[in-house]
Amino acid sequence: MRALLDEHPHLGVEPVLRELHIPSSTYYRWRQAEKDPCERIRQDTELTGQIRQIHQDSGGIYGSPRIHAVLKHEGVHVGRKRVERLMRQAGLAGISPRRSKSFTRRDPDADLAPDLVQRDFTAHAPNRLWVTGLTMIPTLEGPLWLSAIRDAFSRRVVARETSARADADLVLTSLEYALASREVTPGQLVHHADHGTQYTSIKLTTRLVRAGVQASMGSVGDSFGNALPENLWMPIKTECIRGRTFDTRAEANLALFEYIDGFYNHRRIQERLGYLSPIEFEEKHYADQAAAEPVKLKPRQPALTC
């Protein structure tokens, strides 16, 4: 109706309102609301802009729970249902993960390490439990294999390596990188993998023994026995790979670097971490640990006497 009156002002406001049985007070209240929207509408407009920016910064990945958590961290007090409503009105949505399949094969003659984890992927501190696995990224040049090691405490990817071959050298290289970049105390760390031939190889098992790392193995393709390493592939395949075609392995490798090192470890918040990123969660742990340590006072020197 307002559009009709704006386009045909010669019709007159009052005759049109009488014909449509609309009180003139209602019409003029609508017009005033357009010029001076109520506080709630202004807040919704401002909040939608913030939501849109957070969604854009996440690469279109975050849904309402994570966006609500980011707003809370930024000091914006708003209900989650309101965030859901504004996202729906703005046509914004997160990305739902898809489960990926296992790419490792078991060697029936290999000596297997015991399962020290027993489906309990909890750790009370960093570098107590690492989980690792392999997945394949398709490219037009051929498959690119990704080996990644994840710390069970913070869900941080502590090492990743790619190769055109899914062999023992690939997983060994990622292990070497992890050992070089983290402070590992011999005898305190468990390295958990499946029964894939890469993880039962002499190369890898020997290196674990030399580093004082305990080997642990779940079952091949067991979504429960290897839940944490398999859980990493879902966001990678969903948030980094889905809908993209890579011409070369180098192109896919760059995308993985930007996602894992640029976004996942530093910025991707997780509900299980109190809506912190893996690096933020580790930093908070070390800060809390430092704050809890008693202050060591220097002993007083005895007074000098003549």
Secondary-structure blueprint:
Elements lengths: L1 H6 L5 H8 L3 H12 L3 H19 L6 H10 L6 H11 L38 E9 L6 E8 L5 E7 L4 H14 L8 E4 L8 H10 L2 E4 L9 H15 L7 H16 L13 H15 L14
Parallel strand pairs: 1-4, 4-5
Antiparallel strand pairs: 1-2, 2-3
Helix pairs in contact: 4-6, 5-6, 7-8, 9-10
What do you see in this structure?
The longest helix has 19 residues, at 39-57. The chain has helices spanning 2-7, 13-20, 24-35, 39-57, 64-73, 80-90, 168-181, 202-211, 227-241, 249-264, 278-292; strands at residues 129-137, 144-151, 157-163, 190-193, 214-217. Helices cover 44% and strands 10% of the residues. The relative contact order is 0.11. A five-stranded mixed beta sheet has the order 3-2-1-4-5, sandwiched between helices. Strand 1 (129-137) and strand 2 form a beta hairpin. It is elongated and about 90 Å long.
Distance between the termini: 102 Å
- Helix/strand-derived category reads alpha/beta
Helix share of residues?
A: 40-55%
Total DSSP E strands: 5
Pfam family, one: rve_2
Function: Involved in the transposition of the insertion sequence.
Protein name: IS3 family transposase
InterPro entries: HTH-like_dom (IPR025948), Integrase_cat-core (IPR001584), RNaseH-like_sf (IPR012337), RNaseH_sf (IPR036397), Transpos_IS3 (IPR048020), Transposase_IS3/IS150/IS904 (IPR050900)
